[in-house]
Design a protein that fits this description.
This protein is 18% helix and 43% strand. By secondary structure, it is α+β, with helices and mostly antiparallel strands. The protein has an eight-stranded mixed sheet with strand order 2-3-4-1-5-8-7-6. The protein is globular, with a radius of gyration of 14 Å. The protein starts with a strand and ends with a strand.
């Protein structure tokens, strides 16, 4: 299974403070800025990324608040088949999202919810 990137998902009540810290102090750049989430990327290693999410009534992806890590794979359907054959709990079945990804959520053995996604 080819993994393209893995991103922790941090939940905050203060997205401005999170942006100031990760961008201003640590030097991340904003790769995506949407209502309810920021995707940040390293300027020196672009696939080193993280997601900052917060509650918003108009959030683009409110389900991020229930995710601990997001992993982009080459083939999400293959990853789903592997997770189900391993007997893992599927938190959300595979679905195509309007912003161009296909994804499902699975609970890993530590109890964390993992968003497994592929770009379409």
């Amino acid at each position: 299974m080819e993994i393209r990137r893995a991103m922790p998902v941090l939940i905050t009540d203060d997205p401005d403070a999170a942006r100031a810290f990760y961008c201003g102090v640590l030097g991340f750049r904003v790769a995506m800025d949407e209502d309810g989430m920021l995707m940040l990327a390293s300027t020196s290693a672009p696939t080193t990324q993280m997601i900052i999410a917060w509650e918003s009534p108009t959030a683009v992806d409110p389900e991020l608040l229930g995710v601990d890590v997001s992993i982009e794979v080459e083939d999400v359907d293959r990853a789903y088949a592997s997770a189900t054959s391993a007997g893992l709990e599927i938190v959300r079945e595979p679905r195509d999202e309007v912003w161009g990804i296909r994804r499902f959520f699975v609970r890993d053995p530590t109890g964390s919810v993992v968003n497994v996604a592929s770009h379409q």
